[in-house]
Each structure stands twice: as C-alpha cells, then as structure tokens.
Amino acid sequence: MTISTQDYALMAGNAYRLGALDETLIPIPGGWQQLSGPLGYSKDRSGFEAVAYQRGNEIVISFAGTQGLLRKVPDTFCEVNA
User: Fold this and answer.
1) What CA–CA distance (Å, rounded) separates 55 from 46?
2) Would you say 28 and 10 are in contact if contact means Cβ atoms under 8 Å apart?
3) Cα–Cα distance measured from residue 46 to residue 43, given in angstroms and rounded to the nearest whole number
4) Is residue 41 within 8 Å of 16, Cβ to Cβ?
5) pTM (predicted TM-score)
6) CB 40 within 8 A of CB 51
7) In the chain, how many domains are there?
C-alpha cells in the first residue's frame, strides 16, 4: 500500500511532543496507530524524539530531531547562524 505525503507529514508533526499540549498535538493519520511500549515513543535529554507508527505490515519511524537548549532560542537566531 502506498503511504501518502499527507500521512508522512502528519506523522512527522506528531513526533514533536516535548512541551506540546494535548490540544496542539498533531493527530496520527487515520488507519495508523502508534506502536506500544518503548518502541512506540522514545525521547532523551537532548530533545531527540522518535515515534513508530504501524498500519498493517507497514511501519514508519518519524524523528523530531534534537532541540535541547535551542528550543529556547528564537528561530531567527538559528536561521541567521545556520
């Protein structure tokens, strides 16, 4: 089965959970479910987050990346120094 670009986008957005409120969390696309246990969601002190989703025999792992201290730095600062 083909995975749509929209499904990938929703899963990518859903992976950003640190500091998110339940009402601002991007939903998991229909037909997909988060794997349970530590394989389903992982985070560490650096701000790295990963979520694994499954639909039938398909699995997608979505990474939020590291944010750590940069979460507190305005985006404009990060873009200027990139």
Assistant:
1) 29
2) yes
3) 8
4) no
5) 0.69
6) yes
7) 1
